[in-house]
Each structure stands twice: as C-alpha cells, then as structure tokens.
Design a protein that fits this description.
The protein has 677 residues and is an alpha+beta fold. It is 39% helix and 22% strand. The strands form five sheets. Strands 15-19-20-18-17-16 form a six-stranded mixed beta sheet. The protein has a five-stranded antiparallel beta sheet with strand order 2-3-1-4-5, with helices on one face. Strands 7-9-10-12-11 form a five-stranded mixed beta sheet. The C terminus is likely disordered.
Length: 677
C-alpha cells in the first residue's frame, strides 16, 4: 500500500519551525567558552529531527544541508571539537536559511539563495579542519595497538512498527532503502500478527520485519535510520549468533558502545524532545483541557435546547410553561456566553510566541551598531489572540529597532553620561481590563525635543510660530516622512516606520502612547483588544441606518451650541471644545443618507480618537452599547471606504462598523485644525 506523504507534510513544516525556534533560543543563550551539554544536545536533536523528516518526505536539499549541521554538532557534543564563536554564527545563519528553505517548500517554489552555497563551504571547511589530524591520530593508535580497520559485521534487527506508524506518514520501505546505503540488506517479512481480513484497518500496520544487515558501519549510524520513529516502534539489535540486545534510552550526551559483546547492552542516542511551539500560520495546538471544557459547554447547550424543545411541542402554553421557557432562555444566554469565552480561549496564545524572535534581533543589531544591549522579557505568559499577535509583531519590530538605533547610546557615550556600558530594552505585557498592554522600554538617550521640532519645521510638518507642548512634539515622530537620522542606512533614515507603526496599531483598534525623558529613556505603550473577532461597540443611528463605533475610540458625546461652531468652508466645520478646535465629520454626508439632523447644532456630536487626534462625528441618536461579532466585508463583499466591517444585530439587521481613520480620510479633513485660527 502506497502512502501519500504530502498529506502529512504540513505537520513536518510546523514541527521543523518549532525545532528551528528551539535551536535559535538555545544558541542565543549558549556560553561559547563553556557550552552547556544539554543545550548542545537540544540543538543537535532539533537538527537531527529536521534531517530525518526532510529525508522521509524527499526534501533532499534540506536533508543534505542539515546533515552538515548535525555532523558538526555531533563532534562538539562528543568532545571531538571545541565550540567557537564562528560555529555559533554559522548555526544562527543556518537557522535563518532553513526557515527560508522550509518557507519555499510550503509555498511550493524553488529555493535559490547564494547563502546556501556559502554556508555549505564554511561547514565543509570547518569539518575538514581537524580531519587530517584525526586520521593521523587514529592511524597511530591502530599501529600502536595492533588493531585493524573495522570489519564487516552482520547485524540482525527485529523491527516491530507501531500500529499507527503509517498514519504518521512514516513508510518502513524508505527506512530499508536508507539501510541499503550502509551495506548489504536482507529483509524478511513477519506476518504472523495479521488479523482476519474482516478485522483489518487499511491504515494500520500489522507487519513486522527481521532485517539482516552486513556492514562495516558502527551501530550508532545504523540506529540513526530509525531515530525518527523510535518512539512509535520496538527495535532490537544483535550481532549474528549473539543474544538480542534491546535498545534503551541513555542519559543525554552519553556516548553509545558500538562494539557490544553478547552480554553488553547497546545504548540508544537521546530522543528528540522539543518544546511545543506554534508557528505563526497554519494551525494552533490546543490543550485537551480547553477541548474538554468546550465539549462540556456544548453538552449544556444540548440539554437546554432539549428543554426548550419540549416546551415548544406543547399544544398550549400556560403560565408555568412560560416561566420554564424564560428560565431556559436565561440558561441559553448564559451557556452561549460561556461557549463564546471558551471558543475565544482556543485562539489565545502566550505572547512569548511573539517575544521569542527579539533576542536574535537585538543580538544581531547590537553587534552591527557596536552597542551592548540586554533584552529583558516580562509577562511572557500573558495571552493574546493569535490573529492580533501575528499583526502586532511588525510594529513591535519597528519600535525595538528604533530603540536600538536611535535610543540606546554606544558604550563610550553611556559611560560619559554616568550610565553602565550595557543598555537595556524591556518588553513587558500584561492585561488591563479587556485589553492587553505591551510596553517597549529603553534606558537610552530619550527624545531630543529641540532636534525633533527643528526637523519637523525643516520638513514643513509644522510652522516656526506654532507653539507645541513637549508631548505634541514627541507625537511628531509618528508623522509620515519624519526622521531624525542624519544618513540613510539599512536600519533607519528613510522616514518610513513610525507612521506605519501607528497606522497598523490603529487598524487593530488599538492605540499607542509615548513617554520620553531626555537621557533617561523612552517608553512606548501599545493598548490592544484581546481579540479582533469581537468588538465592544456603541450603536448609533444616522437616519434610518444603524452604525457601530468602537467603544475604545470614544471620548464623549455632547450637543453643541451655535456660538461654538466655526465654519471654514462650505462642507467643513470646526467645534470649539475646552479651548480646542475639533473637525466634525457629518456621517450622513459621507455615506449619502437622509439624516434627521443635518446641522451640528441640532444633532449629537460624538468625540472620538483618530490617530491620536480628536474628531467629532455628527449622528442623530445614541443607541445601546453591546459586544458585536465582526464580519469582514472584504471577504463577503468588497472594501468600503470608511467601514472596517459589519455585524448582525439581535433583530437580524446588518450594522456597519465605522473605520474612524478611513472616514476622516474620506471626508478630507486631516489638516482642518491648521485653519482653525
């Protein structure tokens, strides 16, 4: 029976990405001069698992390259080679390269990167560096001891696969082909365990094999063929005429005895054990506890539905039945809320999945800039919706790079300011109310308000006579095209980055705040909803239409007196609120509705936040506040300017969710405040 391995390839991709994340984490915390044995073993096992899996699925390019990594790591963990900084750099580059190779496999495109050939050359040279010395030492040892080169040995292998081995995409015939590369192989089928035909499961494996391999290779090399599946199988090794020697697990890093006598046990290499980490795309690993809770909730719903169904079958509804129905509906509402929370928990992942990429980023950029940096991670167990986490990573990368490039000083400058040579960047996450707060804090130079103000004037972002508070000057770094860098580099200077950060965060219905003190450091605070699937919203009426405004963006709602309204053009008006002028968007005008109130003095102005600036929305009436389930318009219809999505209300009608930033752009009032005077 042929197995289509492609159906299992996604599992391989996910596990390989997890292994690479584990490798990178261990490499970053590795002390090169005194490497920890367990860290080296973890890195080796991850590389070995990727090699074995890629060979099984026929990804020869990945398998060949990881074989080089595995060989180098094997020599390091056996003490035959000393770990060096160059080895660490090569392995970190290999993690990046393998990620790109796996990404190409996932997208089913050819992989071509000159870095592959460069690293292959470096690994080959590193492996060959001491090979001649090793051969001379081995020759001298053999000469002095009178030992001869290894002779062919016949190994008998009793191979008993687990019944589910085929379901996992592991094909025994591929392993046999690998053994044939080591020597002469004879395969004997053992079918005594076959059940009756009527009891057979076509996807189960009922067969065992006895293998006779004549080879001059050591037993450890033979066992590498089966290491990918050893958790699922029973495998016994013994030399011909010897008593069987059952494979046993060894302590991590203990070398195996490859020249076993009939009474000597052969010790297996450690099995690949990597922490479960979820890659950014594709799937989520969910704990059994969460699934069990979800099943229990569904069971409660079924019971409540059965109770309501019995009431519905009654010919007449009396007072007692109405009371039972009311109780049933209350239970249904309670169970629905519980089910909603349980389902949302399934999508929740610890933010460590996002934080884990920053140690490498900080290390590489710190070395590039000649800065000493300590990265401090806090609140790594704080949970966040998977979709939100994926979309917040890029803004966080921009902010961390900004702190490294503009914030932290070089060691010499820090010492001259009385600071320690090593600067620090802290990533902190915690829950606050119904939101998650992410902080990026550095102890660097802080923002130079005079320099920022001067640059903003030079670029025409503000006028020379415009008076700005310190906080207002700080907000100028979020303007498009603004940069304080003197020269363009691959890190900064193009004026692209901070405005994108703010826009991306606002697209997540979040906000970003900045606090900075000169020579003390800066703190960026990002506030995000826990999920993008459900929104706390304020329902408003415009004519005969109902809209939803995100509750997190609303400051207040008020009726405006005539004397506080300034008209600056035919379609644009400003409202003076506590010595501040706010542009007003007439929602009915932008969406083409017939409204009850077309003048600001008659309607209701809702003050909302748009890109850290206050804007007024003219509506007819405030309705209720409620949580709404967001439905994408782009997936079901098309993108509509000024609208971020839609929802279905309790009465079955559809309400559109207002995109405040998009509505402001649609109204063309971005620069109206400049004309307030």
């Amino acid at each position: 029976m042929e197995i289509d391995l492609s159906q299992f390839s996604q599992v391989f991709f996910e596990e390989s990405l997890e292994g690479l994340a584990s490798m990178e984490s261990e490499l970053l915390k590795l002390e090169v001069n005194e490497p920890d044995d367990e860290s080296i073993n973890t890195i080796f096992r991850a590389a070995h698992s990727i090699k074995g899996g890629s060979a099984t699925f026929g990804f020869t390019q990945v398998a060949d390259y990881t074989h080089l990594l595995e060989t180098l790591l094997d020599e390091i963990r056996d003490g035959r080679r000393q770990m060096t900084t160059d080895h660490q750099d090569m392995l970190l580059l290999s993690v990046d390269l393998l990620r790109n190779m796996i990404d190409a496999l996932m997208r089913k495109v050819d992989f071509a990167d000159p870095l592959l050939a460069q690293l292959e050359t470096r690994f080959t040279a590193a492996l060959a560096q001491n090979s001649s010395e090793s051969e001379e030492e081995q020759s001298a040892t053999e000469s002095s001891s009178g030992e001869s080169p290894p002779q062919n040995t016949t190994w008998i292998i009793d191979f008993q696969p687990g019944i589910d081995i085929l379901r996992c995409g592991n094909d025994p015939s591929l392993m046999f082909n690998e053994l044939r590369l080591l020597g002469e192989l004879e395969v004997t089928l053992v079918d005594s365990t076959l059940p009756d035909f009527s009891d057979m499961d076509p996807e189960a494996c009922y067969l065992n094999w006895q293998l006779a391999l004549v080879t001059d290779k050591p037993l450890e090399q033979i066992k590498e063929v089966f290491e990918w599946v050893e958790d699922e199988c029973t495998i016994n090794y013994h030399q011909e005429t010897d008593a069987p020697v059952k494979e046993q697990a060894e302590e991590a890093g203990t070398p195996a005895n490859t020249e076993a006598s009939p009474s000597t046990e052969v010790i297996a290499k450690p099995k690949a054990v990597t922490p479960a980490k979820t890659p950014e795309g594709g799937s989520i690993r969910v704990s059994i506890e969460k699934i069990d809770l979800l099943i229990n909730m569904v069971g409660e719903l079924v019971i409540t539905q059965a109770m309501l169904g019995q009431i519905g079958q009654q010919d007449t509804i009396d007072e007692e039945s109405l009371l039972s129905m009311k109780q049933g509906l209350e239970q249904l509402a309670s169970h629905t809320r519980d089910l909603q929370e349980s389902v949302m928990q399934i999508r929740m992942l610890p933010i460590s999945f996002a934080f884990n990429r920053f140690p490498r980023l900080v290390r590489d950029i710190g070395q590039q800039l000649g800065k000493q940096v300590e990265l401090i991670l806090k609140g790594e167990d704080t949970e966040l919706d998977k979709t939100v986490m994926e979309k917040i990573v890029d803004p966080m990368v921009h902010l961390v790079r900004n702190s490294l490039d503009h914030g932290l000083e070089t060691p010499e400058v820090r010492v001259s300011k009385g600071k320690p040579e090593q600067g620090s960047i802290t990533l902190n996450a915690f829950h606050q109310g119904g939101n998650i707060i992410i902080e990026i804090i550095d102890d660097g130079a802080g923002l130079d308000t005079q320099l920022i103000h001067k640059k903003a004037i030079d670029k025409g972002l503000v006028t020379e006579d415009e008076e700005l508070s310190e906080d207002a000057i700080h907000q100028l770094i979020f303007k498009a095209g603004f940069s304080t860098a003197e020269a363009v580099s691959d890190l900064s200077g193009r004026g692209v980055g901070m405005d994108v950060v703010r826009r991306n965060i606002h697209e997540l219905n979040g906000t970003i705040e900045l606090k900075s003190t000169k020579d003390k450091g800066s703190r960026f605070t990002i506030r995000l909803p826990l999920t993008l699937a459900i929104l706390d919203g304020q329902l408003v009426r415009v004519g005969q239409h109902t809209y939803v405004v995100p509750l997190v963006s609303i400051h207040e709602s008020l009726q405006v007196e005539e004397q506080r309204i300034n008209r600056i053009s035919e379609n644009h008006e400003l409202v003076r609120l506590r010595e501040e002028y706010l542009p007003v968007v007439k929602v009915f005008q932008e969406f083409g509705h017939d409204a009850d109130f077309q003048e600001i003095r008659d309607g209701l102005v809702m003050v909302v936040d748009s890109n850290n600036e206050k804007i007024g929305l003219l509506v007819d009436e405030l309705l209720s506040q409620q949580q709404v389930v967001i439905k994408s318009l782009e997936d079901n219809y098309s993108k509509v300017p000024g609208v971020s999505g839609a929802t279905i209300l309790g009465d079955g009608t559809v309400a559109l969710i207002i995109d405040i930033s998009g509505l402001v752009t649609l109204a063309g009032i971005a620069n109206m405040k400049e004309h307030a005077a």
